[in-house]
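# nightly structure sweep
# worker-07 picked up a monomer target from the shared queue
# config: single-sequence mode, recycle default, output format = structure tokens
# input follows
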Amino acid sequence: MTGLDDVLHVPVRPVWSCSGCGPQVDWPCGYARAELTANLDPISRSMYAAERMVEAIADLPDEATPGDLFTRFLAWTRRAAR
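# output follows
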């Protein structure tokens, strides 16, 4: 494997960008979402994403609304489960 496959796509706190994609890309990036979908069952994936969202709310109190963070961290988990 080369390229993105060798890079960890984890959140860079407290800004919640993607370590693999760079500071201009919000985490979870598309690659992180694909990895989480492949490796976690739907309930575990949603719980993991919700835990990260709670952390992001604390880190980004003035940067994003709760609705924006819900869309970013949780809405995709429901779509991935279908």
